[in-house]
């Protein structure tokens, strides 16, 4: 356990606290968690499927997260708070490793700030209490599967008169796309560049 915690400390990307605050963009600030946890000894990424009751992105696959509240002060607090509200995860049980490039959502007009997190104790069982209004399903995808070339597809779409590259990741019957896929793509890119490989024991796979 202590060895994993040391790896997490050594692998963390140092991000200034000021970068955790909302920028001056006209899009509404939001934050999500890319939560990686060990399941049967293998690193898995947690995803949720939005319910059909929410206002935006009904039935779509996403990371846990939501919009920034002024009481949050910083966006990492937003990500942890939303994960607690949606899944019942205690923020004290999680450690944030770093932050990824922000992604915009065209339909809902958010600027989404992603934070990578792991449980403080890798052996801890996280008991989820999903919010039935917001969350339709919780599932995990093994990180090694997402790193396989077969999981990735790139398409060019025409949106509002402009060409836009759309990223897709497929695992079994799950299709991850939109801002979630963009964020996932950046996360996997960080791993391929050397970040967190030892922590997730992926150095032999990439």
Report on this model:
The structure is a single chain. Helix content is 20%, strand content 36%. The protein is built from four helices and eleven strands, in the order H-E-E-E-E-H-E-E-E-E-H-E-E-E-H. The chain has helices spanning 2-11, 75-87, 143-146, 178-192, and strands spanning 28-39, 42-50, 61-62, 65-67, 94-99, 103-105, 110-119, 135-142, 152-159, 162-171, 174-176. The strands form two sheets. Strands 1, 2, 3, 4, 5, 6, 7 and 8 form an eight-stranded mixed beta sheet that branches. The protein has a three-stranded antiparallel beta sheet with strand order 9-10-11. Strand 6 and strand 7 form a beta hairpin. The longest helix is centred in the C-terminal third of the chain and has 15 residues, at 178-192. The model is unreliable at 1-19 (pLDDT under 50).
Jot down its keywords.
single chain, about 210 residues, alpha+beta, Nucleoside Triphosphate Pyrophosphohydrolase, 8-stranded mixed β-sheet, 11 strands, disordered N terminus, NUDIX_hydrolase_dom
Helices and strands, in order, run as HEEEEHEEEEHEEEH
Low-confidence stretches: 1-19
Helix content class: 10-25%
The fraction of residues assigned to DSSP E strands is 35-45%
CATH architecture level-2 label of the domain at 2-145:
Alpha-Beta Complex
Q: Looking at the structure, what is the overall shape?
A: globular
**First and last CA, distance:** 24 Å
Structural class: alpha+beta
Radius of gyration: 16 Å
Strands, count: 11
The CATH superfamily of the domain at 2-145 bears the name: Nucleoside Triphosphate Pyrophosphohydrolase
Region (Disordered): 1-25
GO molecular function, one term: metal ion binding
Protein name: CoA pyrophosphatase
Organism: Candidatus Chlorohelix allophototropha
């Amino acid at each position: 356990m202590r060895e994993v915690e040391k790896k997490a400390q050594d692998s963390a990307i140092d991000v200034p606290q000021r970068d955790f605050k909302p920028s001056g963009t006209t899009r509404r600030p939001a934050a999500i968690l890319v939560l990686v946890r060990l399941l049967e000894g293998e690193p898995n990424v947690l995803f949720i499927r939005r319910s059909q009751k929410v206002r935006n992105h009904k039935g779509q696959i996403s990371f846990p997260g939501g919009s920034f509240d002024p009481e949050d002060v910083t966006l990492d607090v937003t990500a942890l708070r939303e994960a607690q509200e949606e899944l019942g995860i205690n923020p004290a049980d999680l450690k944030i490793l770093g932050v990824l490039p922000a992604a915009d959502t065209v339909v809902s007009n958010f600027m989404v700030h992603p934070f990578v997190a792991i449980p403080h104790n890798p052996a801890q069982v996280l008991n989820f209490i999903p919010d039935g209004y917001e969350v339709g399903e919780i599932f995990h995808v093994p990180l090694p599967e997402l790193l396989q070339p077969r999981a990735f597809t790139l398409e060019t779409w025409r949106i509002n008169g402009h060409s836009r590259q759309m990223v897709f990741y497929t695992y079994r019957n799950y299709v991850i796309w939109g801002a979630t896929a963009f964020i996932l793509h950046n996360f996997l890119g960080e791993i391929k560049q050397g970040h967190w490989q030892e922590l997730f024991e992926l150095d032999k796979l990439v």
